[in-house]
Specification:
By secondary structure, this protein is α/β, with parallel strands linked by helices. The protein folds into three domains: about 120 residues, Methylthiotransferase, N-terminal domain (Rossmann fold), CATH 3.40.50.12160; about 240 residues, pyruvate-formate lyase- activating enzyme; about 60 residues, OB fold (Dihydrolipoamide Acetyltransferase, E2P). The protein contains twelve helices and 22 strands. It has a five-stranded parallel sheet with strand order 3-2-4-5-6, with helices on both faces. The chain has a five-stranded mixed barrel with strand order 18-19-20-22-21. A hairpin with a 5-residue loop joins strand 18 and strand 19. It is globular. The chain starts with a strand and ends with a strand. About 40% of the residues are buried. The structure holds iron/sulfur cluster. Iron/sulfur cluster (SF4) binds next to helix 5.
Amino acid sequence: MTLALDTAPRVGMVSLGCPKALVDSERILTQLRADGYALSGDYAGADVVIVNTCGFLDSAKAESLDAIGEAIAENGKVIVTGCMGHEADAIRARYPGVLAITGPQQYDDVVNAVRDAAPPVKSAYLDLIPDAGLKLTPRHYAYLKISEGCDHRCAFCIIPSLRGDLASRPPAAILREAAALVKGGAKEMLVIAQDTSAYGVDLRHAVSTLGGRELRAHITDLARELGALGAWLRLHYIYPYPHVDQLIGLMTEGLVLPYLDIPFQHASPSVLRAMRRPANDAKVLERIRRWRDAVPDLALRSTFVVGFPGETEADFQYLLDWLAEAQIDRAGCFKYEAVEGAAANALPGAVPEAVKEERWHRFMAAQSAISEQRLAMKVGRTLDVLIDEIDGDGGASGRSKYDAPEIDGQVHLRDAGGVAVGDIIPVLVEDADEADLFGVPA
Ligand code: SF4
């Protein structure tokens, strides 16, 4: 069976007004891109158009109203945000067909309105952000997308053909967005891209000046600057290139969380070659050992694919042995499925579904045992926990530095009266299972 993937809905943006409005537009678009939306440079190609208005002067209001009118005439599905959103009655009186009107900095409302007008296409094959349903990230954590596209050509993946080659955002734009997120209450930023560690390669790691300092368009420099903003900084989709060792240095300085999400996908050299995976270095185990020497509590999260064409029982056993050696803290596993347009579809040696199923169960059993052992090592320790939810019975749940939202585990707290969502509090870990920790505020 070959999977055909729906294309992402496209959003158009007309941004009027001052630099603050521009930052709002960038933030809205970043969230939408992170949610899998594509952008449209013209009205005709957009499924919905956002008009970010200015209402400072009468002339600016008139310009905003004209822009709304043009978007309605050219596209029809229009969401209005920005300063003129305060005058919703005036807008509605002239354009009753406007889908939604919000004021400035109401990012969540704008993104919700876009979701209503053009529901996102969720796909485990395309989305960087876990399928958290249609929930927006709460204010206390935020995804920060630093680049689009990818220069690699993994055999099972069609992202480069859909989203193009690597296109890194300028460091200043990322830092401006990150500063706004932290100012807006974000306690944790999750850096995402198709290949986070390749950030800036397309910009040839150009040096720019920021606040009098020189800054390379390079993941190490960017992570250092982002980490200095004071929120937890979590790195996703890192490939184990040699320069990742420098990120370990930032962890020892406390600028980056002791957490790396590395999508290894497999361990067997022949399968990795067939997959055409980047940074496919046989010495990865040795490097993991060195990383853990430097950062003993480093948490590694990864994803793997079983049943890739040509995967033999020996390849699979190699993967299990590697897993036992690498002691990956958290891992997801997918059974290989052909995706329409992927090069891997032409590979010989299709693995029967029953074999994929059996390998998947063996993988999950092995990984659960490793996760359980690694979590048990945290019992008795006091960990900082970022509170995500409060329940009605004096309990709460949150995450330690070792767990990303949605994909990893939680820390469940008892006797947590008085804590609020977004607080970071010390927690004494009393118990653990194969997924979660249990504890009490220390
Ligand atoms: S690194 Fe490979 S799997 Fe990831 S987006 Fe690029 S081509 Fe796809």
